[in-house]
Amino acid sequence: MDHFLYRDGVLHAEDVALTDIAASVGTPFYCYSTATLTRHFTLFDEALHGMDHLVCFAMKSNSNLAVLKLIGDLGAGIDVVSMGEYLKARAAGVPGERIVFSGVGKTREEMRTALKGGIRQFNVESEPELEALNEVAIAMGVKAPIAIRVNPDVDAKTHAKIATGKSENKFGIPIAGARDVYARAAKMDGIDVVGIDVHIGSQLIQLDPFEQAFTKVAELTEALRADGINIRRLDLGGGLGIPYERSNEAPPLPMEYGDVIRQTVGHLGCEIEIEPGRLISGNAGVMVSSVIYLKHGEGRDFLIIDAAMNDLIRPSMYDAHHDIVPVVEAVAGAEKSAYDIVGPVCETGDTFAKAREMTALGPDDLVAFRSAGAYGAVMASEYNSRPLIPEVLVNGDQFAVIRARPTYEEMINRDTIPEWL
Ligand code: LLP
């Protein structure tokens, strides 16, 4: 459930009409709902009720400072994967003890920054990384808390580009060899082994891959404990999918996912961490764009809109479906047409949807892309010298621009021409 509903024929974010935001900030723009972000975080928190737990929002899905502050103030932890994400999470007021650091290529500088600024744990993804972290921590005279990310070789049954838990993927260490790596880690002076980490992929719409992976993690926990290693925390990653195509998708609910966690690892007495991104931020955001032209092509009509692949890359990158709806609802019974919905960028891949059935639309009409709050603004670029589009946060009947649209001057002046040119 989200808080983007039609009222008097106009799509609203909570109590604010998207037409009002468009009039104020121009199009295209991203718009997020405070109530939806809050609700989705709370669903996970409740799903893990009764277990010692921390829900660590995967900020790669949406890293606006205001969104981080909102979620952080609810008590969330944050899953970060870079120096920039770590510093942003801290700037949003999230304490280091609620930040977990994931990622296959952490640099020594990132390790030092996190150890100095405070960190809950590093999710270590390889032996060279373990050695580097040990050296960095020893040089600083501290112990780095770690979980080792294991690769359980489980098929997440999702898009190949976002599956991470198969042995051919670059992530984690093979679970079969994990005991040896843990044994080495346990002897390192700069390392404090606290747990096990796993993340098998994103946009999972079935529970059984989670169940398989978590069962393997439970077995490993017991094996490691038998080896004398005190595993007290399990980070089970993120990945629970959302219904992008509302008419025919119903992924499992956080509560059902919580039950899988309880059944597979609940008996171990470990503290549980999860790292959901998409399910918290995805349906909490829309991208609003306006129609520039309706172009009649051969056998098809193109709706050319002012948003493009640089603003929302998911359709061209993953063939992802986003529901696209008119902001001003058509009258009941209005005829529908099939449109290819495309942006102005000079690539055929700049196509959001093909032959999408919509009520008749024309120049200046507004459309909203649903489920755009995750992996939307964060993956945007300025390709074709199109400035990044603004982000707006709604709370009840108020809204605020939480990232302003840069001026063309600002965009141009970021480059410099050397004096010898
Ligand atoms: N934890 C780790 C270690 C991850 O790599 C990810 C996502 C998450 C948590 C959060 O997963 P989520 O709950 O959001 O599924 N750009 C792609 C998605 C990439 C996901 C990368 N890792 C997309 O637009 O579909």
UniProtKB/TrEMBL annotation:
Catalytic residue list: C346
Enzyme class: lyase
Binding, substrate: R278, R314, Y318, E347, Y375
InterPro entries: Ala_racemase/Decarboxylase_C, DAP_deCOOHase_LysA, De-COase2_C, De-COase2_CS, De-COase2_N, De-COase2_pyr-phos_BS, Orn/DAP/Arg_de-COase, PLP-binding_barrel
Designated gene of the protein: lysA
CDD domains noted in UniProt: PLPDE_III_DapDC
Keyword set, alphabetical order: Amino-acid biosynthesis, Decarboxylase, Lyase, Lysine biosynthesis, Pyridoxal phosphate
EC number: 4.1.1.20
Catalytic activity: meso-2,6-diaminopimelate + H(+) = L-lysine + CO2
Subunit structure: Homodimer.
NCBIfam families with a match to the protein in the record: lysA
Family: Belongs to the Orn/Lys/Arg decarboxylase class-II family. LysA subfamily.
Main function: Specifically catalyzes the decarboxylation of meso-diaminopimelate (meso-DAP) to L-lysine.
Upper lineage: Bacteria, Pseudomonadati, Pseudomonadota, Alphaproteobacteria, Rhodobacterales
Domain Orn/DAP/Arg decarboxylase 2 N-terminal, first and last residues per copy: 36-281
Cofactor: pyridoxal 5'-phosphate
Any single biological process term in GO: lysine biosynthetic process via diaminopimelate
GO MF annotations, alphabetized: diaminopimelate decarboxylase activity; pyridoxal phosphate binding
Orn/DAP/Arg decarboxylase 2 C-terminal domain residues: 29-373
Protein name, entry field: Diaminopimelate decarboxylase
Keyword Zinc among UniProt keywords: no
Domain of life per record: Bacteria
Listed SUPFAM superfamilies: Alanine racemase C-terminal domain-like (SSF50621), PLP-binding barrel (SSF51419)
Residues bearing the modification N6-(pyridoxal phosphate)lysine: K60
